[in-house]
Batch of 4 targets.
Target 1
Amino acid sequence: MNRRDFLKHTGFGLTGTALLSTLGGIRLAEAAGNDYKALVCVFLFGGNDSNNMLIPLDAEGYAAYNAVRGPTSGINIPQSSWLPINPSSQGGKVFGLHPSLASLQPLFSQNRLALIANTGTLAKPTTRAQYLLGGAKPDNLFSHVDQQNQWQSATTKAAIRPTGWGGRLADGVATFNAATTFPPLASLSGVNLFTQGAVSSVIAPNASSLKGFNTSAASMARYQAMRQLETLSSGNVLIKAKNSITGKAIDSLDTLTKATASVPALTTVFPGSSLGGQLKNIATMIAARGTLGVQRQVFFCSLGGFDTHSAQLNAQAGLFKDLADSLKAFQDATIELGVDQAVTAFTLSDFGRTFLPSANAGSDHGWGSHHLILGGAVKGGDIYGKYPTLQLAGPDDADSEGRWIPSTSVEEYAYPLVRWFGLSDPKVVLPNLSAFDLTRKDLGFMTGV
Amino acid sequence: MMFSIRSSLMALLVSWSLTSPAVSASQPYWARFVDQATFGPTPTLLDAWSTSDPEAWINDQRSVAATRYPGLPAFPSSSTQGCPDAETAATCKRDNYSMYPLEVQFFQNALFAPDQLRQRVAFALSQIFVVSGVKISQPSSLSPFLNLLVDGAFGNYRDLLKQVTLNPAMGYYLDMVNNDKGTTDGKIRPNENYAREVLQLFSIGLYQLNKDGTQKLGSDGQPIATYDQDTVEGFAHVFTGWTFGTLTGATPKKHNPSNYLVPMEIYRVNGQDTNHEKGAKQLLVYPGTTGQLVAGQDAAADLEVAIDNIFNHPNVGPFIGRRLIQALVTSNPSTDYVARVAQAFNNNGSGIRGDLFATVKAVLLDPEARSDKTVQVSYGKLREPVLMVTAFLRGMEATSDGILSSQTKAMAEDVFYSSTVFNYFPNPYVIPGTNLDGPEFGVESSAVAVARDNFINTMVYSRINSPATTPPQAVSGTDLNFSRLDALSANSDPSGLLDYLSAHFLQGGMTASMKSIITSALNCTQTGGKGPCTNARDRSRTALYLVATSAFYQVQR
């Protein structure tokens, strides 16, 4: 395990003097100092069934779970299999984590991991009665792509914002990154709305930077011609957009490749999974923060496969094990790098799933769901927000299938993270924030805010 | 009666007006058509420009025999059981438990099959009706589904929709197979997965559309939903009671063992569809129907009504039409263009709705597809990685064994492994910083952008080596054929080389500035300062690399 796993530098590096312009963004001196912070969004694509991630384990709570998701439901997890956790609030109740989240259980006890209950897209605080009367509700509830976009851009409208709240956050803290042109946003999971800023650019690290060039005169001439062609205007908007993406990609990947080549390899061992690899790459980029000259970074990575309409038990167990082991390794890596107080990871997902099982031992698209927040600056060991009443057609159900109406909005979830990141005016990032009660005492999951 | 006479007359007029140009007006005119209708122009195809006409070519393509995917044997569900021999297990698993053989066939078809239009349309359809190897484990399971699309590419949309619905790969992918009726205690209810996605992705989308593809707006100025949760549940109830086809000699069961080779069937006990939800069902509501499906019908009858209910929704023409335009021609068609294609879908000229051949023909022969591109700032589409790879290889008369899927996977288009039912890239997707659609930009990250360039680099300066195949193939790996370029590159004057690249890769659109920039990178060494350039291949490579990596090529116009 070494840095070559991260960026296989198989091509010939762009080291010629003519190419030095691509290094312009690097602040070579040790720069980041102590004021460094990173947010890491882990998106659980498909809609995580958090009804099988976190349940109350006391007799009454488990009975409510078992009444709907009993042994014949096809998606039952026996009471003895749940991993008990003891949140400081929630009335002293014992809760259970999914058995495959074993590597996260100790982090909860160490107060590094918190959960936030029943969170989702909301136009304003909404009760079941208001919902059933047709009150303000997010557009296209239960549709994957719409809900993903709404979670990522912090809106409830189908006409999505052109930027994500991660991107707007990077825009908002741009002064912290004034010393570099290296992108403050990085996606290890391709293009996504979350890391789309209005002005900040985003890098998607690749296994290699641009290949095929060397310092010969012919090669340098070809490289220069290539870069010149990028600047040719045709008037066509698609060509211009493609040129812009390519140009930034070549420059930022080259910068990153050089920067990560100079950092010591991490000793923390990550799972060999896709998510493990993504989080390892993020840790490596964080390790290179000094060379890159960044003081605020927003990362996006993802794990797919949560759309468990069928055969959910096995599928989700595998996903949760990957998620837990990868996050645990990431937490260890931030400790290894001495930045565990400066790095916070958190999950998002399309939606929760119906509490009522569907045919084929699965569950269908729901709404509110529980999420994980992890890091040294998290007030861990607790469950924040309001856990729903596990009752079909009960006070938290949007209908009769257990689609929980969120008791906490995406905005309220993001708010402590955004403030912790150092943004003075969170409304720039979360325009709909004023629709919610910011004096709520049950959402203070970050230290120092 | 009146209607059919009138529509026949219309058909005659349309047909007359479209056939009027006997041949292509110019090589760029033809090159542009070929870029849209095939997996990329080959020199041979391009050279035939002066005797070729788009409409005649489309008509010819209809009768070219379909190149189909092989029927593969079903293996045991456990790969350890199916591939017990330790020495051959890796190859055995690749060939029988991954989509690999289908990917190879796909690229061979794309590069070399004569039924280019059918293959290209089938590929477009595979990105509307998405089934993925992320969930389907055996290629034998997916192959019949791919053949449905190849066979149905020029057929009727309703037939295709029904076949897709009853295909077991789709059934397994979106959980219609073994979808039980709800339990009497209400503790389990029908699965909503196929019900939701068939509406949102395969047919009508989320909002009511005008014929030109724009959203209808309600009195509040907001788009109007095409369906609600009750409708999803109605369709979920329709799609109950089906299971895999009963294997020969087996006793039918409520949940038959896997069988991907024949359509799904209804589980019956003494002829009764006992696993079908019998209650009344809410289907789509639109002018002409209240969407009420009466209680008590047989599962087969319910399915026919439901398919008709979707098929006749006024959204299908503009929804599917726009997708096909975006797949073949341009990401931002005008509303008039969409309306003309929707009209062809709604009525092929003979009173038939859903004729995909007529729809594709309307897409490709539309004035907006055939007119001059240079004036339109929003015209064209970013070549998706697969189409970039195939067009580049066809343009360079490459030899290939078709083992190319790892190349496009590195560019976020993992053939037959779409990460979700939402396809390799999202649609709609607005290109950041613009107000234009560009679905292919939805995966164009910095990693993908550089991966594209690195693919071109590999092909131009090296080759793709393939693992030893069993049995050995006549062709192994993928190589470009430089003979045409090298002949031109020997000339110290690069204009012949650049004109060739312009004609074959840029539809004749290489500007003087582009020529000048490329020329600056072309160094010619001659023996004794005279005669042909001794480094002709270097010149070919430099010029080809610069053209193919440029946005002028990566964006198809």
Note: Chain A has one domain: 35-207+255-435.
Target 2
Amino acid sequence: MRVAFLGATKGMGRALARLMAERGDTMYLLGRNDVDLERSAADLSVRGAGDSVRWAVCDLDQPEMFVPAIAAAREALGGLDAVVVTAGMFATQEELELDPALTERLLRIDFSNTVVFCEVAKKALLEEGGGALCVFSSVAGERGRKPVILYGAAKAGLTHYLEGLDHKHHADGLRVVTVKPGFVKTTMTAGLEPPPFAGEPEAVARRVLRAIDRGTPVVYAPSPWRLIMAVIRALPRVIMRRINF
Amino acid sequence: MSADVHLSRGLGRSYGDASLPPEDQPDVLNTTFADRILSLDEETGRFRAESGLALSELNRLLMPRGYFAPVSPGTKFVTLGGMVAADVHGKNQHNAGNFGNHVTSLKMRVADGRVLECSPGQHPDLFRATIGGMGLTGHILEVEFGLGQIPSQWIWQENRRIHDIDEFQDALEDASQQWPYTMGWIDCLARGKNMGRGILTTGRWADADQAPSQPPKQGLQPSLRFDWPSWVLNGLTIRVFNELFYRKQWRRHSSGIVNYEPFYYPLDALRSWNRMYGKRGFTQYQCVLPREAGRGSARRVLEVLTARGGASFLCVIKDFGRESRGVLSFPRPGITLALDIAVRDDTQELIDALNEQVLQEGGRVYLAKDSFTRREHFEAMEGPRLDEFRAIRDRWDPNRRFRSAQSVRLLGD
């Protein structure tokens, strides 16, 4: 598989890219930080992704980079079978409420710019005759909840966009995989108290890779979160107003 | 992040307080997200990675390609940074030395905030103090070392029954002439003429034509999910376990091909095995007794243990061949004993008594295991080595930015 990967340097993206490397997939890395990209490229290369894994800087905060980045990936890989987006931004509800500029930035990165990136990726994949577009949304987008009102709103928008994309382009060979991670122990959540059913990035990565291979449209990871979110969705408003989940 | 914090830790498997922060600086940097491989030279085996890479991951990735860490401790749940900081040794200490003997270069963040490379040729004082320096010289960011090559993932192992402690010391010395890997298990409850009876295990990598064609399978990974009540491990159960373990080796001699996992990492097979010791946990006491102390040294230390009614669930013996390169590295030529001791009200007195004896033998203790040694004992054991360590810290970290609960206890930081 030839994969353009936005966000392979950290957390779940790092774990997923490693699984792909170990089975011999070839990858082109996109990300914000060149030092990190170079180190991750070396790591993935020793793990099996081929002699030299290539990379380019592509910042989700700079949409003008998206078209050249995807084009560079396509050229370097000699085509494209999948695009993975694990990049994103997180801030706690408290931090966001105190800082409107931070809120604006989070909404832009996690929603509008991610959607714009997916539009570019979608176009490239359709030109290739189809492929997998795997994007990390979040269980936070399942329902408006007190601890993740703003982050959740951005992820809810992203989830809806991806669902629409699946409906429209499934017949064209585009396999949209929406990943909804629950709490996973990564650098993003470092410092937060892990709840029950907190997952490890490696386990999430295994589920996601299976979903990409099979074209499963929606993946909850770790798996108990599917049930947890079903319960949360069913709770009446009077209860949601009282609990802090 | 390493700019603000005063101590790094890896997987936190050292038995003592080395990776715990001092009370007044409660933050510790967890390195396990810094786990990327940076280079592997397939010709020479020269390997470089970020310091949070775990040995378990290294084994999983590189053993199928014929590489193995030149030195491996008794658990694979250890990071490269931890292997440097504790300057770990393994069953091949008598010929391969310590992990530190194979390290070619380290990238560090030192107290003044600089990130720099140190090696035998570049800042050699910092390099030598960092190997075995328990994280007190700076944050270890990257580790470069030479991987060993192996013919298969299987071990040709021989086990031999040993009747007492003196025979053990001789047998280990003989075995070290012929075998790359040696270690012994001792029944710590046997007294009198049986004192120190046990099983000597020796091994070497099986050649490709001796080994099964399939790589070892990953078996079940059971795990203890809760702390056992403290009465479970009592004098009787420990006695029964030790007796059974000894009887298992009912033949004088046995041999065969085994998977490297149970050979190297017998305790890793049962995840969270430490919960057996209940809420209060256990401590490990590991000391080395120099060759000059003579044949009876191990017996004299075991006598201190048994005289105090101390029961060790697990007791391991191994010979050391040479000193390592670190200023405070643990090994020296002689014999080492490692005792697992459940923590009870009198544990401090027991460790004090053991340390008094070790001091008389001219030995020292292993900081990666220690949580009870008193400062005056430590200073008496280390003498001039400690002075050198302090002098190097004075040069690189005069304000003692890097501290741990252990350094507060043993170095008075």
Note: The interface with chain A takes residues 30, 33, 36-40, 50, 61 of chain B (CB under 8 Å).
Target 3
Amino acid sequence: MLRKFKLDPSRLILAILLMLFGAIAIYFLSRTQLVIAGSNFTSIGILTSGVIFYAGVLVIVAMFENEKLLSISLLAPSIVAVAIFVYGFIAWSIRVSLSKWKGLLPDYTWAGLSQYTYLFHDARFMIDVRNTVVFTIGFIAGCLILGLGLAILLDQRLKGEALFRGVFLFPMSISFIASGVIWGWLMNPATGNRITGINLIFQKFGLDSLISQWHSSPQPWGMAFTVIPAVWQLSGFTMALYLGGIRSISEDIREAARVDGASELEIYRYVVLPLLQPVTLSAVIILGHMSLKIFDLIVALGHKDLRLDVPGIYMWTTTFDGTNYAQGAAIGILMLVSVAILVVPYLIYSIRSEAVV
Amino acid sequence: MKNRAALLHSVFYLILIALAIFYLLPVYLMLLTGVKPINEVDLKTMWDLPSAGLHIDNFIAGFQQLAPNLKNSLAMVIPEALLSALLGSFNGYLLSKWKFRGSDVIFSLILFGMFIPYQSILIPLVKFMQTIKLYGDLPGLVLVHIIYGIPITTLIFRNYYAGIGTEIVEAGRIDGAGLLGIYRHIIFPLSAPSFAVVIIWQFTQAWNEFLFAVILTNQSHWPVTVALNNLAGSQLVQWNVLMAATLLAALPTLLVYIFLGRYFLRGLMAGALKG
């Protein structure tokens, strides 16, 4: 490696200055507090100084003229960050889930799989699992059907296509919290004198049979209704995926089918739909991993109503309200497992067939 | 035949318009309720137009409720989006143009971080942030968003740079430029579109995020999502004020979508289709 080392005095001085500055800054920041505009920036300052120090190291690495080494060194901070914050923390969570930690003080006494066996016999967790399954099926089905339908409609080259596309897509830019708050009012279950929201519209149009308890309905229907705001937010996104897929199908193929006497409907059924399978797969992965960890929407919609409980909320209340850290960690890990089962095969498949990634 | 096609088109339009009404209903309700005076706010007349002119009192009241939180969100989101984009651009460049043995494996390991439920790292994260004294305030939240944003930003930039031919890099090498020189003189000047995509994406994500915000900040540093959720749960706030506040909280990302939707959509696609 040293054979290509090219010493450049000015760069060396730069490197030494950077490293010196970084080290001195770290030294001082570790002894005093850095407060800017009321926020404590001491740790951020130390981190920044560390980055400056590392920049000095990089300047020296660059002198080796070994670009692979430089590439790895430049990536190293991100790799280390992900290694700690994703993989390190997952391992740490697993360790917590195997402990007896209950209460504010950490307690890593080994408890084996007892948290997991408890959860599998826990009525609340079983409700969570059922709710997640109901939500996931409803959400994916709703988004795929509505998304594909909208995409096919918009594929008809109608006037105002861009406007419609914009209208169907905009809910995606709103937070789940805001969406939950609004839909909570639209899906107000009150009846009689206090009737309001969509129920009020139904009443005005004489559609009394459609008046619903919405997400306050008996389970599992109550949970199924929480799908409405979620579909409202992400069906437009699914539409955009499908529309992109449809538009990328060459017009020649469709023209050929037309020449063979296929009707427009048959073309969609036998030509377009089969070619859209990869899009459906992508959509299922994206929507599926969102719904398996659904959290904020249900918080805003149900306000921790136990009937609408999902693992994300259970984990939150157990850990931070109930200080049962071991159990909270176990719920988090089970959520991770469910997402990994869905995503990991897809990731491996995508990486192998580089075309997708 | 012509008639049939015209009829079909009318049916399509009717369906599209009906669906468009459904999609716009929540926004209509927020606007409608927001502009009604207090004495006209009645659950029974939720859908009626205001009879005594337009009022913006609710928006003022909603803004007063959320002003500190809107400021917090802004102070958090801007540095987060800019730094995320810079980091992602570097990572994407290295992972697409300077591959080394194992770089694809590293890329997929990074990518996995995009999918994990954050509940699975929440306890260590809180303990870690408390240890390094970044718990409770905005700088810590910015750092967390940047780190967990690495997968998606790297992905978007990597895909974008993969579309730039290797010839251009080779040409740079022949001219004597190294890894950093090629980035500075060739790749970075070509990156404007994907910077737009990533900055908009990270802005929207961080603005709308709730879990990290509610766990990692204390009340005086709450971003707007946490404050809004709190407002919605309290009995003290008039619901017309709440509707106005919800619209205000959603407005920044809505505006970004309306004016920069093209880039927003590209970010979405990159996150979904990976290419």
Note: Chain A has 16 helices and two strands.
Target 4
Amino acid sequence: MTTYFTREHEWIAVEGDVAKVGITDYAQAQLGDIVFVEVPAAGTTVAKGKEAAVVESVKAASDIYAPVSGEIVEGNAALEGDPALANTAPETEGWFFKLTLSDPGELEGLMDETAYKAFVDGL
Amino acid sequence: MREEDVPEIIETLPLDSWHRAKGGRMVAFAGYHMPIQYEGIIAEHQWTRTSAGLFDVSHMGQLTLAGANADAALETILPGDIRGLSEGKMRYSLLLGEEGGILDDLMVTRLPGGNPFGEAASDFYIVVNGATKWDDIAYLHEQLPEPLVLNHHGDQALLALQGPKAVDALARLAPGVADLSFMEAGAFTIAGVSAWVSRSGYTGEDGYEISIPQGAAEAVADALLAQPEVKPIGLGARDSLRLEAGLPLYGHDLDEKIDPASAALGFAVPKRRRAEGGFPGAERTIGYFKEGAPSKRVGLMIEGRQPAREGATIYDGHEAVGTITSGGFSPTLQVPIAMGYVSTDRSALSTTLEVDVRGKRLTATVAPMPFVPQRYVRKGAK
């Protein structure tokens, strides 16, 4: 399994042609208390860089973008009942959705963990 | 270069480094760097509802108005009963523009002698919003007659201590404050600093607002924070607390196009003023109080968990009937709440409407405000 990161503070863990997507710890800290998450339904097609999910914190609504194109396999149903999972476990149980990649080539250009850490430190 | 490209100069307040040292995340608000949160909005919100929260509201404008018949002059631009205000008592009022729209909302206190502003007995202390203070000052200069003197106390900081245990914390430093009733104010000494303290606030809880010289702001903030009941609270929780309390936020729920009747602020226009008029837009506003305004500010409970934010359109079927002006998630009720304006024929309690949130229709029900009961302490109230 390889994990990549985006400049929009999403992580994508890829295993074969399936990937799991969520927001980083930095993202959840910036958003503050998360009170609502809307994840895409299975079967939905998402495009790289386009809106795929919505996160509402006490302060504001934010779009979550698909780091790569593909078809949604599963949205994390646990976030509906307990949206705070995205704060407390953003990189584990608080994942947003799983998708099948339509173009693995899109992974090129995403950051690895070291590059993402350097990117965040520079913010 | 377009106007919006001109970088706004963001100023710092007296407690800037104090907030940063306490872990405050700073944002630009009303032209100042201010803390949006420390440990988190929900935790800070709950702390204020159960203990005592310390807010820095030094961005607000602190004014005094001195001179004979200042009360009558104020009544030409405020629709409240200013003449009937006795020394040491304060009221919420509305600064009205020439057409009767709301230019700002404010607190006005009739000062007793011996106040720390150096004004005479019967002069007035007025606290206005930070984002509007410069326009307010210009308008007041324009509207008030020459012999009156308006002073802007830009050298004063303003703190708010809010919550059910605010009285315990503050009374330990200044015992007399426990004897103030809601909407009363007086001069006290806190940690050796001369302070003007009122029992008032913007959270729906009991609490105090404390005006002190800016050079002493850190010493007073430290003395308050040393009390076990007190934690620093940011602007984020200030907003969620006031929304639960049903209190409007100027620039969002109130603006210069809205009159006091549409804003459902009838308590700010008492019987005598409705009978006598004599404030801008009186004829229209009084008519609206009698017969109903075309639209009205209401509270809304949103079904589900997704908040409806400012700007969202309110529908009754296909018909757009209003707009959300403030909306968020209520940490106390654990549901989304909002306030907004709807056409008056849709404003009755329990009316079911819909709000368009990002292309999705959420069910919204007109609900009484405050959403969370206010807990003001009125001494000797019967």
Note: The CA atoms of residues 105 and 264 of chain B lie 13 Å apart.
